[in-house]
Amino acid sequence: MQNSDFIEQVKQSFQYLIDEYDFSIVEEQFSSKFFGNALIRYRSESIDITITLDRNQVLIGLSPVFDMSRRTYTLSALVNYLTSGKPETAYVSPNKGDEHSNQVILQVNQVSRILQEYCSSILMGQFTGWEHIGTK
Asked: What are phi and psi of 30, to 5 degrees?
């Protein structure tokens, strides 16, 4: 999978952010010099979401726009807080036998599903518990 393929896969899997939650894409980066890393950033009036490909691992971070510290919360931390610790794996561990592109697609689809399933109040800008994340 090339960087542009990663960006296109993210756009496809996260289209609901634009269609349902009024996000827009504000940044796209990819670098062939650094392990093929790439990122795409979405923004709404209240939330920044960054989806990153870093050495074959897909990561997602959310930041409240109003937070001047620009602290970023992982999807795992948010799901843990929102579900009171219900077990959920936010990231897929790549299988050694899978092709690189299959690993990345699987991870993109999984983090997209988890974000959509558990974080609707955050995506709508109606979440106020940021200061409590990671304190349970």
From this structure: -150, 145
In the predicted model, what is the mean pLDDT of residues 126-133?
77
Can you tell me which residue has the tokens 């897909």?
58
Structure tokens at 102: 């299959």
How long a stretch of residues is the chain? 136
In sequence order, which residues have a C-beta less than 8 Å from that of residue 106 and are 6 or more positions away? 92, 98
Tokens at residue 81, please? 């807080």
pLDDT (tens digit, 9 = 90+) per residue, 75-90? 888 888 888 776 655 5
Give the C-alpha separation, 12 to 8, whole Å: 6
| Six token digits for residue 105 | 């697609």
Mean pLDDT value of segment 57-76: 84
Question: Do the Cβ atoms of 130 and 73 come closer than 8 Å?
Answer: yes
pLDDT tens-digit map of 107-123: 999 999 999 988 888 89
CA angle 30/32/34 to nearest 5° reads 90
Token digits of residue 94: 């790549």
CB-based burial, 50-81: b 16+ in 10 Å, e otherwise: bbbbeeeebbbbbbbeeeeeeebbbbbbbbbb
Residue 2, CB half-sphere, CA atoms under 13 Å: how many?
2
